[in-house]
Amino acid sequence: MKFVLIQADGMPDRPLVELEGKTPLEAAKTPFMDQLVQSSEMGTINHIPKGMKSGSDVGNLSVLGYNPEKYFTGRSPIEAESIGINLEPDDICYRCNLVKIINKNGKEFMDDHSAGHIDTEISRKIIGALKEKLEDAEFKLYQGVSYRHIVVWKGGQNNLETTPPHDILEKNIIQYLPTGPGSVKLRDLMRQARIEIKKLKNLIPELKNSDCSDIWLWGQGKKPTLPHFKSIHKINGSVISAVDLIKGIGKLSGLNVLEVDGATGYLDTNYKGKVDAALKSLKKGDFCMIHIEAPDETGHEGNYRKKIQAITDLDKEVVGPIMEGLKREHNEYKICIVSDHPTPVDIRTHSYEYVPYMIFDSRLNKNNHNKDTFNERSANESNIVHDDGHRLLGSFLKS
Ligand SMILES: [Zn+2]
Question: What is the chain's pLDDT, residue by residue, as a tens digit (399 residues)?
């Protein structure tokens, strides 16, 4: 038995006036998902436990079968894992964003959480210089991609309050700076970084016009320990994604993290490369998760046309070829399509509604719903509801 899980990140949405009351998923052309659902179990599921924040970190742990209430220790230690940082048990890992903070009438505002999606090569110069000036026995900096970097605080404090910079756009930063035990050290690090970045802008001409003014520290946590996928489910598996966070969860769970050239996490990603890598991995292993980021990104952009495009592409370039490939190469297989959380275009951030899922089993030709479309409405009208999303993977993998 072969198992493919397609994770359509942030695909679920809300009815939009611009689409005459349809959601982007309802408005998109999805003949393959609609065909598949007619012989599938369909229902709704929740991957964000009560009291936790709706994020891809929490959501993807749950999608991969790990109870976030038990295993989630913060976002940045998962990302650290994916870029090969070996965290010690007493290390506290922080996400370090390069950001743009502006001063208006003596008050400081978060203008851009990504420093204009700063180019990785330019960020390398900034992080390189900051390493030289700021690193000591306690604090170490690590280069990531674009605006996303890591600070590790040896023997640091874990119970500080920090705030994601994308949640405070255009807001006065004063009440969102780190607070709690030891926060003085973090604020000091951020203050020193500002001075160094300013100096650097005068020294390196190409940095002069960059949107980076500061670093912002948040998303802290200790290294999480996940029981390995294989020890739980007794099969080998792989994960395919463009996103560091998902690769990090894959590594921590002992899955093979497959690299695909041209995987971007956006509309221009290499869909064919991902599908080919998935089908190839299933010649040896039994499970593959394909993560598609574009529905989430286009939701954050607040662009329903692009989100419809992302979902139409997902259906045509991933779901269709996976159905075809599995049918051609394997006798028995199951396909699960699910999302970690909704990313509605009208609010441009994640929300908490239950998301649709379907499970297709090539040996069965039955459904529980008599619907011929896969979307939020159909799933809500079917009769299955999973409150504990992390349990879905186990039941999907029962052959
Ligand atoms: Zn997500």
Answer: 999 999 999 999 999 999 999 999 999 999 999 999 999 999 999 999 999 999 999 999 999 999 999 999 988 999 898 888 989 989 999 999 999 999 999 999 999 999 988 988 999 999 999 999 999 999 999 998 889 999 999 999 888 999 999 889 899 999 999 999 999 999 999 999 999 999 999 988 888 888 999 999 999 999 999 999 999 999 999 999 998 889 999 999 999 999 999 988 889 999 999 999 999 999 999 999 999 999 999 998 899 999 999 999 999 999 999 999 999 999 999 999 999 999 999 999 899 999 999 999 999 978 999 999 999 999 999 989 999 999 999 999 997
- Tokens in use for 389? 């999303």
Ligand 1 centroid distance, CA of 59 (Å): 7
Instruction: Give 223-245 as a 3 state SS string.
Output: CCCCCCHHHHHCCCEEEECCCHH
Which amino acid, residue 158?
N
Listed in sequence order, the DSSP H helices in the chain are 24-27, 31-37, 56-63, 68-71, 76-82, 120-134, 183-203, 205-208, 229-233, 244-252, 271-281, 294-301, 304-313, 320-329, 376-381, 392-396
What distance in angstroms lies between residue 310's CA and the mean position of ligand 1's atoms?
14
What CATH code is assigned to 2-72+225-396? 3.40.720.10
Give distance in angstroms: CA of 58 to centre of ligand 1. 9
Which residue reads 């397609």 in tokens?
6
- pTM score, two decimals? 0.86
Closest C-alpha among 374, 393, 294, 397 to residue 26:
374
3-state secondary structure of 263: coil
- Bridge partners of 335, per DSSP, are 4, 360
Measure the CA–CA gap between 236 and 250, rounded to whole angstroms. Answer: 12
Using the mean position of ligand 1's atoms as its centre, give its distance from the Cα of residue 56 in Å: 4
CATH 3.40.720.10 spans which residues of the chain?
2-72+225-396
Query: From the CA of 131, how far away is ligand 1's center (Å)?
Result: 31
